[in-house]
Each structure stands twice: as structure tokens, then as C-alpha cells.
User: Fold this.
Amino acid sequence: MATKRSKATAPKPAYAKNTQLVNATGDQTQSLQDFYLADLEQFTREGVYSNTASKDFHLFYVGRDNVHEILKYVLSRTSVSLYLNMFGYDDDELNDIIMEKINDPAVTVMITLDQSQAGGVHEKALLEQDRNGDLANFNSHVVVGQSATHQISHTKGFVSDGKVGGEGSVNWSASGEGEFPDGAWQVTGVNTPPGPVVGGPGYKAQNNTQSIFTDPDTINRFQTELVAEHVIAQRQAAPQAPTQTAGKKAPASAGKKTDAVKTGKAAKRK
Assistant:
């Protein structure tokens, strides 16, 4: 009697999702393909969401929740595409993550920044540093501009990998994100103490909110909007074709009388 041969099973990849690793830059085993909003509950003061919390939208609060670490967690796991428009762009650590994505040929990146903010002392120096690193690559992915009607570009949000979006009132700066000093915040969870009530001496936090969402319709619509805003800013930055000025002389042919006119005048004289 023939024995039944067991089906060969493919070996499982040596991969484990590590939610305790905040900045996953350089670790290709960590991505957003298996992301859940619950991955971010460790960054809330309580360390856990309510049992009535939404599965595809959560709102975080600067000064109460660790927004800087939330942004690092999501952005560093981007591996396919990143579309971002940020009004205030003053965070060195987040900029390092963005530049790592820009320099990765496997990731499609479109970054739009506001023209008025780009002239600020810190942001100007940060962007100059990025340009000096690789000007051609920077110019291929980053554009500085305004809205379609030449107002400020006030969007503050992103879509990563077509799966995770973020939007809110948070500018990327220490006080805008309410960045906790090193050691003042411990990554939390159900079995660990919650985050601090205050960030220690000298701590500053604006009243800001940061949403993270995963519902497909909002992701699709917001990504489309981010692309449109990027294209508008690109058109504004593109060199304009020279136009003829009012004081320019008309071409010589314009002032010459045509043979038809000359013939007509000659006929009248006859």
C-alpha cells in the first residue's frame, strides 16, 4: 500500500513584527504591510486605547501623547511610497528619515513644503543641508511653493505606502510635536507605566492634534490631494517662457507695405 506523501511546506521567513522598535530605519523586516492602529497605543498617556476606539482612525494630542515617536514609528516603516505636504518642517530627526526614503530608489517620494516657512532660519538651514547632500535627488522629490491661489501651503499631512495616513495641526518642530526630552518618556504598554504628565523642566508643547488613519477611501482621496498640491507647487517653481514686452519694436515686416497695398494705391493713381 502506497504511503501518502506529506506536502512540503515553505520555510517561514525569519521575521517578527517589533512594535517596540520606534525608528525602524534600515530594518527591512519592519514595514506598514501589517500595521494596525493598535501598534500606536503604546505612545498614549494611558498606554492602551479604550475598548470603544475606532479601528481605522485615532486622534492623538500633543503634550499628552508622544506625537514625535508616533511620526517616527510610521514614517520609518515606509517602504513603497510617501506623499507629504508639511507647513512647518523643522524636525532634524524626521528629516533624516525622509531623506533616507528619498535616497531609496525603491520608494516613490513627493514632498511639498510651504514657501514662507522655508525661509525661516532653522528650516532654511535644514533644506540647505539636504541640497548639499544630493542636489539632483533633492530637486527630483522636494518642491517649495504655495497654494493654487498663491496663499500659504498649510496642509500638514502624509500618506505612507497607500495604507497609513496622518493629518492634523502639528508642525514638525520640538514644541509643535511636544517632543519629550530624552529619558522623559518611556515607551508604554498595558504592562508598563503610562507616559509622563509633564515633560520636565523647559518642556514646551503647543495645543495640537495628530490623527492617524487607515480607512481606504480617506487614504485614496488624501493621497490624490497631496499629489495635486505637489504638481501645483512644481508649476509655480518651473521657469517661465519669456514673453514679448510692450516696448519691443515690431518685426520689420510688420511695418512694410505689402505688394497688394502698393498695387492698390497705384491703381487709384491711374
